[in-house]
Amino acid sequence: MIKQLGFIIFFTLFVLISGNFHAQAISLSDFDQFEGGIDIAGGTAHIPVMNEAAKRIMMQNPRIRISVAGGGTGIGVQKAGEGLVDIGNTGRALSQEEIDKFGLVSFPFAIDGVAPIVHPQNQVTALSSDQIRAIFFGQITNWNELGGNDARINVYGREEASGTHEVFWGRLLNKGEIVQTANIVQSNGAMKVAVAKDANAIGYMSIGHIDESINPMAVDGVIPSQETAVDGNYPVIRKLYMNTKGEPSPLVNAFIQYIYSDDGAEIISASGYIPSK
Amino acid sequence: MRSTVEYLFLIFVWGATFCAMAAVFILIVFLTYRGLGTISLELFFGQAHWFKAITGSQPVFGGLWPAMAGTAALVILSCLMAVPIGIAGGIYLAEYASPRFHSIVSFFVDLMAGIPSIVMGLFGFSIIILLKHTFLPQARTCLFLASVCIALLVMPYLVRTTQNALQSISQERRLLGLSLGFTKWQNIRHILIPSSNRGILSGIILSVGRAAEDTAVILLTGVVSQAFVPRSLWDKFEAIPFRIYFLAAEHKTAAELDQAYGAALVLLIITGFLFFVAFLIQKSIEKKWAIIG
Amino acid sequence: MLLAATMVSVVAALSILILLIYFVRPIFSVEGLKAVISWEWRPFSGHFGIMPMMVGSLCLSLGALLLACPLAVGISSFVCVLAPKKPAKIVNAVIHYMTSIPTVIYGFVSIFLLVPLIRDWLAKGTGLSLLTATLALSILILPTIVLVYSAYLREKDSSMRLTAAAIGLSRVQYFLFVLLPLTRKGFVVASILGFGRAIGDTLISLMLAGNTPLIPGSLFDSIRTLTAHIALVIATDSQTTFYHSVFAAGLLLFLLMALINIIIRKLGGKAS
């Protein structure tokens, strides 16, 4: 009797543990059994990772369809919460209110930073955080006040619902009032294009999106990058989250586990973020 | 003797015309110049082989094919919905409606014709939210919703052009069927509609053009930046005008920007072609009436 | 059955109105209304005012109209009265063609041609501004105004041309002193239609106007229109005032278009 009980307990434990191992070791071939669709929307910083993962999975198994949309953190919360998409991406942690109201479950998967960015030809490449605050609050309005050209500073920002905005505003701008004349762009990608085309621009953007078309501005002597985000020197960081309404369905769970797997970590790093749970 | 006022006005007129023509010319030349070089199999199919992509065995990444399929699906679905209803409505208004009814319904048709497409998109989006809170919790924005919204947008054009086409048929022709003993409906079906078919056709072409280029509606009703060839009515989809907008705002590489130019040129060619077909139809209508008198 | 088909338009228009009102309903309390009909859009600090967007829409549309109307009159007179047959036909065809060019293409080309022009050559601001959007929008609505106005011109022209020639008026005098006054009503109808088209446009302002929710202080300021506002903000949180304010914007637009239609009917024109 005790022996049989013991066996049952052992067997159950074995299945549970091996199930976990199996989930952590998910690879592309595990998707062959699935069929169906996943709709993803929300944070624009997540898009390169989502796109690449979706591409690999769909090449592996064309019967799975994954659609990826942007819209920003606000849309990620709302669409996941309303059940309009399977995974809603956010660039910030969910508030308790949001969790309670929508019943969302969060899956952090990467660390990202938000950096102030300028045009590559801008001579100003390093500022103190006070100066950056002054620029975004509209107190400094010309680049020549900072040692640059005599040109008006063109401030670019994001909508208030954006996770990127919230992190930058909360951690670097200390929640001050951003100048009202800032041009509003809709995503990290759009911010990059806007700043890359305007020699007098300053904006803020996810570190993962940084490439040669723009320059990250050093803040208090620290250049924002993957490395400085990881070793803690650059303070304006945040996690990237996937969120689902309630527990995810098997296919969605497989996708999430794929992002957590080694393959996923490779995709995350290649996109400029640091994999993390 | 021309006064200075007249001279100035003449200069103004030629200047204005020149400006408008120049604007269009610059637009076309610019797009052709930047876009022509990008037109290749790769623009449409990315890395995938074209045959496999069309038959669906290989998904396409970084190519226009999904967007073209999405736009095609939108156009076909919305026209399937709008054309029969629009034409039927036009027939009713032209042939059966009492003047009072005609005036009221016309008002609504005009209202619908003038609705900003973003408001239509808002309407579609709010329907889904409403459905979710009431009987259909799995409702999502999708191809079907977008097609319905576009159908509602183009319907007024169809009603109007059908109505106009029918109303411009001469009295003699109208009486032709009746004098042979047709009932009103038979007359409509066998004489009047075939006589106005070119007008109706131009209305359809107008609708196709509108469905292909409208961006604001699909922004709110299901277009996404990466999806695949829509397999069912309930899928998310891509579309050419959205692709152009998205790539213009957020291209990550120079190659993506090139793709935007290619897409813009493709869209311009498609709408230009539709316009040309409508133009030919118009010409044949004129010729026909010229013969008949 | 045909009747049912006809009623679809009516039903659709009414349902749009009802749905918009339904979603706007929650703000019809005094504080709700005050919140939305206010001048600041900072949703996270509790300001949901859509008035800056209303002003933005009006400024942009009126500006585009101001630019497009004179040009339209000029081009219409060119096509109908003043030019020799061949050029008139060509210009007419091109204007027709312009109506088939998708809005997104106008926006796209403007981003890469107009914006750098304004930013670098005129050296004013970011290039994304009221001015840029106005220029692009006026080209967009120009063909509409030209086509509608030309129709009126041709109508009057057919009855007046011989008389004017008999009196000995030159073509220009004929247009300026005979046709123009006679077609005043047509001009108003055409302008109103152009205005309606301008107010309802989303993409041009979304791509070119900068999207700052502020009342413009100068032509080079960045502005946001009601239409772009809806597109930008549409789904943030479906219960709070944010969301309802977006429906208020939609309702405003809908009512505006209805008003335009009524005005045109009163003037006796056809809003096709």
How would you describe this structure to a colleague?
Chain A is α/β, with parallel strands linked by helices and 277 residues long. Chain A is built from 10 helices and 12 strands. In chain A, strands 1, 2, 3, 4, 6, 7, 8, 9, 11 and 12 form a 10-stranded mixed beta sheet that branches. In chain A, strand 1, helix 2 and strand 2 form a beta-alpha-beta unit. In chain A, helix 9 (250-260) packs across helix 10. Chain B has 293 residues and is mainly alpha-helical. Chain B has one domain: MetI-like fold (Orthogonal Bundle). In chain B, helix 4 (65-96) runs antiparallel to helix 10 (197-213) and helix 6 (117-133) packs across helix 7. The longest helix of chain B has 39 residues, at 254-292. Chain B is globular. In chain C, helix 1 packs across helix 11 (241-267), helix 3 (51-82) packs antiparallel against helix 4 and helix 8 (184-200) packs antiparallel against helix 11. Chain C has helices at 2-24, 30-36, 51-82, 85-98, 103-121, 130-167, 171-182, 184-200, 203-208, 226-233, 241-267, and strands at 41-42, 47-48. Chain C is an all-alpha fold. In chain C, strand 1 (41-42) and strand 2 (47-48) form a beta hairpin. Chain C has 11 helices and 2 strands; from the N terminus they run ααββααααααααα. Chains in contact: A-B, A-C, B-C. Chain A binds chain C through residues 71, 74-75, 77-79, 81-82, 84, 101, 152, 154, 156, 159-161, 180-186, 194, 197-198, 200-201, and chain C through 42-44, 115-116, 119, 125-128, 210-214, 221-222, 224, 232-233, 235-239.
How would the blueprint of this fold be written?
The complex is a heterotrimer of chains A (277), B (293) and C (272).
Chain A: H1 2-24, E1 36-42, H2 47-60, E2 64-71, H3 73-81, E3 87-90, H4 96-102, E4 104-118, E5 126-127, H5 129-136, E6 154-158, H6 163-172, E7 183-185, H7 188-197, E8 201-206, E9 215-216, E10 218-219, H8 226-230, E11 237-245, H9 250-260, H10 262-270, E12 274-275
Parallel strand pairs in A: 1-2, 1-3, 5-10, 6-7, 6-8
Antiparallel strand pairs in A: 3-11, 4-8, 4-9, 4-11, 4-12
Chain B: H1 4-35, H2 41-45, H3 50-55, H4 65-96, H5 99-114, H6 117-133, H7 143-167, H8 171-179, H9 184-195, H10 197-213, H11 216-221, H12 240-250, H13 254-292
Helix pairs in contact in B: 1-13, 4-7, 4-10, 4-12, 5-7, 6-7, 7-10, 8-9, 10-13, 12-13
Chain C: H1 2-24, H2 30-36, E1 41-42, E2 47-48, H3 51-82, H4 85-98, H5 103-121, H6 130-167, H7 171-182, H8 184-200, H9 203-208, H10 226-233, H11 241-267
Antiparallel strand pairs in C: 1-2
Helix pairs in contact in C: 1-11, 3-4, 3-6, 3-8, 5-6, 6-7, 6-8, 8-11, 10-11
